[in-house]
Amino acid sequence: MKEINITSSFLVYSGIEELSEEIQSLMAQAVEIRKKAYAPYSQFKVGAALLLDNGKIVLGSNQENAAYPSGLCAERVAIFHAGSIYPEAKILKIAITAASDTNQTTAPIPPCGSCRQSIAEYEIKQDTPIEIYFMGEIGEVYKSASLKNLLPFMFDKKFL
Ligand code: THU
């Protein structure tokens, strides 16, 4: 028997002011698209902004449905759109922000498990790490230098 230890490392910024101008701008775009989320059931709005290696920025917000599982998270709306219109481009950075209509979200909101698995697919496909920045409505911003920090023991194509 042996034990395996896997460590994850994150940078914690005390607020958006501490981010580089590039990431502040990306996060500002995530905030704007977040406001356009269609979230009548949860009142929990999420925005995601992707920076691609071709210089394009692709945005997404969560889209809910009366048949709940038919809705989709902001991160997957954005990455699937990017994959559709720029199939050759690499995703360099993702900024994510979430805000509830009912209470102020101060904790950094990480991508859900399904979004992590979806982002993993693109990180492996492009063979380049994707930087992920996530925050609530206000407060700290967490940075993960790669999706791998968020999804240890990920399932990927090498198992197929
Ligand atoms: N949501 C996202 O958009 N991204 C996540 O990573 C977590 C959850 C959305 C899905 C749903 O519309 C709402 O937030 C509440 O779960």
From TrEMBL:
GO BP, one annotated term: pyrimidine-containing compound metabolic process
Residues of the active site: E75
Reactions it catalyzes: 2'-deoxycytidine + H2O + H(+) = 2'-deoxyuridine + NH4(+); cytidine + H2O + H(+) = uridine + NH4(+)
Needed co-factor(s): Zn(2+)
This protein's UniProt keywords: Hydrolase, Metal-binding, Zinc
Signal peptide span: none
Xref: Gene3D superfamilies: Cytidine Deaminase, domain 2
Binding site for substrate: N62, Q63, E64, N65, A66, A67, Y68
Any one of the GO CC terms: cytosol
Stored InterPro entries: APOBEC/CMP_deaminase_Zn-bd (IPR016192), CMP_dCMP_dom (IPR002125), Cyt/Deoxycyt_deaminase (IPR050202), Cyt_deam_tetra (IPR006262), Cytidine_deaminase-like (IPR016193)
Positions annotated to bind Zn(2+): C73, C112, C115
A Pfam family of this chain: dCMP_cyt_deam_1
Enzyme Commission numbers on file: 3.5.4.5
Domain CMP/dCMP-type deaminase stretches: 21-149
Molecular function terms, GO-annotated: cytidine deaminase activity; identical protein binding; zinc ion binding
Top-level class of the enzyme under EC nomenclature: hydrolase
Record has Metal-binding as a keyword: yes
PANTHER family to which the protein is assigned, alphabetical: CYTIDINE DEAMINASE
Function of the molecule: This enzyme scavenges exogenous and endogenous cytidine and 2'-deoxycytidine for UMP synthesis.
Similarity section: Belongs to the cytidine and deoxycytidylate deaminase family.
Protein name: Cytidine deaminase
Annotated organism of origin: Flavobacterium resistens
